[in-house]
Amino acid sequence: MVRRWCRTFSDGRQQVEDIPRAGQTRTATTDANVGKVNDMIRAKRRITIDEVAEELGISHERAQNINHDILRYRKVSAQWVPRQLTSTHQEQRMAVSLEHLVTFIQHNFS
Question: Which of 24, 28, 32, 73 could pair with 62 as two cysteines, CB 3.0-4.6 Å apart?
Answer without folding.
Answer: 28
